[in-house]
């Protein structure tokens, strides 16, 4: 295990610009964020976009424009969210792949999500997976709970390997309603992963960010950080730019003697074609 993949998730769908002016919501803000985060050590970007009123949207034209701009201005692997917001419909979420990102998120089951429900029924998972295989989009399996790990076994057993043949997943820990963000749970989830998994990262929501990152590094995992998941560096210290979270992750990864992977190394890890 030579390096650490740091994925930045800079925006998400849950936080409003009014509540958090530092959140990147316009295309210009997103590109500036991506550039600074790439310089700080990120290798992949997990993207949610917003409309002119800064509300979450899955508008296909905007998604295409976003993929094009990020490809033009950065080397980062671009991963579009197919989770969107809890209010988004299945058809819209499936259509995200038509924007032809290199990677997409693919959540492996329904989960209580605070006061809401993040709905991912099995037939939707299968349709999204098969579409990703047809289009050659490399999925990142999002695992919010141990049941999602079991569902990943079932998916791979029944429908085979993803595009590219590598299996990358992300443990999303500490969502109210999902698995808790602590070391014991991370170890249990990692031990339960299918043998076909070739790489995994972990992210801890809110105050679980640091314990999850430290546990992931000590277990050989990669890291996802960003304002989608964490709005404070410490109690009373708000994040003012996503690059701060990437810098912190890069420092931890370097301390662990697994420094940040550059985008070309991330493409090799995920068996994506080289870019430039
Ligand atoms: N916004 C959450 C409801 C994903 O991006 O795939 C879903 C989410 C997962 O963020
Ligand atoms: Zn997301």
> Separation of termini?
24 Å
Biggest sheet layout: 8 strands, parallel, barrel
Helical residues, percent = 25-40%
What is the number of E strands? 14
CATH topology: TIM Barrel
Tell me the Rg in angstroms: 17 Å
How much of the sequence lies in strands comes to 15-25%
Walk me through the topology.
Layout: E1 6-8, H1 27-40, E2 44-47, E3 49-50, E4 56-57, H2 60-73, E5 77-80, H3 90-95, E6 103-107, E7 111-113, E8 116-118, H4 122-135, E9 138-143, H5 146-159, E10 168-173, H6 183-192, E11 199-204, H7 209-218, E12 222-225, E13 232-234, E14 237-238, H8 242-255, H9 263-270
Parallel strand pairs: 1-2, 1-12, 2-5, 5-6, 6-9, 9-10, 10-11, 11-12
Antiparallel strand pairs: 3-4, 7-8, 13-14
Helix pairs in contact: 1-2, 1-8
Bound molecules: (5S)-5-amino-3-OXO-hexanoic acid (KMH) and zinc ion.
Residues 9, 12, 46, 48, 81, 83, 105, 228 line the site of zinc ion.
């Amino acid at each position: 295990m030579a390096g650490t993949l740091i994925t930045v998730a800079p925006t998400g769908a849950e936080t409003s610009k009014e509540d958090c002016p530092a959140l990147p919501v316009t295309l210009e803000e997103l590109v500036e964020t991506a550039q600074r985060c790439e310089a700080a050590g990120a290798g992949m970007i997990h993207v949610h976009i917003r409309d002119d009123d800064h509300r979450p949207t899955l508008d296909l034209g905007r998604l295409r424009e976003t993929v094009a701009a990020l490809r033009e201005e950065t080397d980062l692997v671009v991963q579009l969210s197919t989770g969107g917001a809890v209010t988004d419909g299945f058809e819209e979420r499936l259509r995200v792949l038509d924007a032809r990102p290199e990677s997409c998120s693919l959540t492996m089951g329904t989960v209580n999500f605070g006061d809401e429900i993040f709905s991912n029924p099995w037939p939707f998972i299968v349709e999204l997976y098969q579409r990703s295989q047809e289009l050659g989009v490399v999925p990142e399996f999002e695992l919010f709970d141990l049941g999602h790990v079991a569902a990943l076994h079932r998916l791979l057993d029944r429908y085979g390997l993803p595009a590219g043949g590598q299996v990358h997943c992300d443990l999303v820990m500490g969502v109210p309603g999902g698995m808790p963000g602590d070391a014991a749970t991370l170890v249990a989830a990692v031990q339960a992963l299918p043998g076909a998994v070739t790489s995994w990262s972990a992210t801890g929501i809110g105050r679980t960010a640091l314990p999850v990152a430290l546990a992931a590094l000590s277990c050989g995992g990669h890291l996802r950080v960003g304002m989608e998941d964490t709005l404070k560096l410490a109690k009373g210290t708000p994040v003012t730019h996503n690059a701060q979270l990437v810098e912190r992750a890069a420092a931890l990864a370097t301390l662990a003697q697994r420094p940040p992977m550059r985008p070309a190394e991330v493409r090799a890890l995920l068996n994506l074609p080289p870019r430039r």
